[in-house]
Amino acid sequence: MPLLRYDAYRPDISDYEGTSSRIVLNAIPQGDGYGPHPGFSPYTQALPAPCCGAFYALKNDGSVVTFAGSATKLYQLDNTTYRWTDVSAGGASYSAVSVNAQWQFAQTGNFVFATQANAPLQVFDLTQSTAFSAALGSPPQAAYISVIGPFLVLSGLLALPYRIQWSGLNNFNSATAWTVGLSFSDFQDFPDGGITRGIAGGTQSGVVFQDQVIRSLAYVPGSPIVFQIDKITQGMGLFAPYSIISAGGSIFFYAGQGFQRIDPGAAPVPIGLEKVDRSFIADLDKGNLQFFMGAADPRSSRIYWAYKSNAGTAGAYDKLLGYDPLLDRFFPVQTPGQFLLGVSQSGITLAALDPIAPTPLAITGAANNGSGAIRLTLASEANANFAVAGQNFVEVYGVQGTTEANGTWPFAVIDATHIDLLGSSFANAYASGGQIGGALQAMALSLDDYATAVQPQLGQFDNTATLGFFSGAPLQAIIQSAEQSADPARLDIRGFKPITDAPAVFGSLFYRDTQQVAPVQSVEVSLSMRTGRCDMMRDARYVRFQIRIPAGTAWSFAAGIVPDTGEGASI
Predict the structure, then answer these.
(1) Per DSSP, what are the bridge partners of residue 566?
(2) d(Cα 314, Cα 436) in Å, to the nearest integer?
(3) What's phi and psi for 256, nearest 5 deg?
(4) Would you tell me which of 143, 390, 476, 502 could form a disulfide with 551, CB atoms 3.0–4.6 Å apart?
(5) DSSP 9
């Protein structure tokens, strides 16, 4: 038989004698079939609580400032230690984010704004602030925030959910910034279409999403109306408020009718119809739409939607659905996380890598060593990847109570579970926690990836609330061919040859004798390095050929398979 090429992932349609694939996992579509999808690599310390929103801002000197929110706090990333500092207004807690919501952020010049419907709009001045504060001018509390040209625009208002409201022209944080009628600040109520669910912003225009209507929003300089607002759709709105993605001049989102795309000046067009829409909505946990969020990969043409499936664990998403607009192909990825975003990393010193290195040593106590210095009690002074013995210094972090222990110290080993921090002074009783940094050689993320750079890439807060990037070793990939048949004859299958440069491949068959029964998977066999084949014997009427490439395998393409089959009896 000729090459059976791996084509588009289209789980919504039958693949019988077709070219599309119903099973693709952790593989990126490309011109020669599929390629590897990188795994997650941690980059920072974990947030103190689950992530409910994140954002990175650029200062006027080009440096990066990263913010994140929990249900009741806002945090800033320390670019030296890669720990999170509480920068909530006054150090207090905010009213908690609604269980189905997230913080949203926006930057205008030196100001970073953070909003969620249960708290006043927050602002952080990148040139001087050490914490967020309530924005000036009494702006309305709102769930969503956007920037359109010289205006900050709020939607999903707590008190007036059918309204959008915008700041003054280039006036974002002053006593008059939100005074209607001054500096072109104004609002617009919508009589139909339902609650406003977000705005995709742009340099001079935007798109307003409601439950059942989508409207264009075009800035008209010098006009007293400020924005020209026109209805784009009737009966189509936004199904999930965090599913909006702006990428490459287009807007992507999920409506009640499935995945959609809006190009500049155009109406929405479906991109998931008869491809993934039916399968996706059946898999989506519709009671946890706060985890249904979109993000663009800044280093490729691909975009991603994270979501919690019906089978997923509470408190996180478990799947990504990727889409390449240039190839017009979807692809699923399995990875747990709390928040998905495009984010830039900043530089880090070699010493600061210690706290984020894997397999740290746990601290279980701290006390006065009898001479005034701090004596730490460790669960163990060594593990499989790291030991304090032979080190000149230890990096201590996360100790509560005896916080004076945190930092870099010369030390002396006392016994199998105790060390003294030389030059330290014990002052406060130990409360809990603490670790000693792990082994740099055990880090999944290459040290080359820690250079000072502002080019963003796709990242996430994983299910431990740790920020990192998809730049690790390849995930385990599974690709299945379309279903083949020789009806009315049966197929005698002797094996198949995977067309891939992956050195480790496991092959199996999914076979059945009628279309009315579920396929059965055969025993996996490994690729023969002598023949390049996966050899097996099976007699069936219908068959799919599947390959599995283990995690960590170095490979660049999988184009398809060449089956070795013959026709059997017509029974």
Answers:
(1) 492
(2) 31
(3) -60, -20
(4) 476
(5) B
Cβ(128)–Cβ(91) below 8 Å: no
Which alpha helices (DSSP H) does 124-177 contain, by range? none
Model pLDDT, residue 97: 98
Residues near 201 by beta carbon (within 8 Å), at least 6 away in sequence: 106, 146, 147, 148, 153, 246
Give the span between the Cα atoms of 93 and 559, in whole angstroms: 53
Task: Using a pLDDT cut of 90, give the percent of the chain over it.
Answer: 80
Whole-angstrom CA distances from 248 to 301, 324, 341, 414, 469 are: 8, 11, 16, 60, 21
- The pTM for the full model equals 0.82
Which backbone phi and psi does 277 adopt, to 5 degrees?
Answer: -55, -50
My answer on whether omega of the bond before 488 falls inside 30° of 0, hence cis, is yes
CB burial of residue 179 (10 Å; 0-12, 13-18, 19+): middle
Q: Which fold has domain 51-285?
A: Methylamine Dehydrogenase; Chain H (2.130.10)
pLDDT(532) > 60:
yes
Say if residue 59's pLDDT is above 60. yes
Q: Residue 329 belongs to what H/E stretch?
A: strand 329-337
CA distance 417 to 275: 58
* CA within 13 Å, CB half, 489: 9
Hey, do 51-285 and 358-442 end up sharing a CATH topology, with the first three levels equal?
no
Of 474, 542, 465, give the one whose Cα is nearest residue 511. Answer: 542
Six token digits for residue 155: 């939607």
Q: Which two tokens stand for residue 54?
A: 């994140």
Q: Residue 41 is which amino acid?
A: S
Under DSSP, the state recorded for 95 is P
Contact 462, 341 (CB under 8 A): no
* Confidence at 445, pLDDT banded by 50, 70, 90: low
CATH of 4-36+475-567, one of 2.60.120, 3.40.1620, 2.60.40, 2.40.30: 2.60.120
For the chain, the structural domain boundaries read 4-36+475-567, 51-285, 358-442
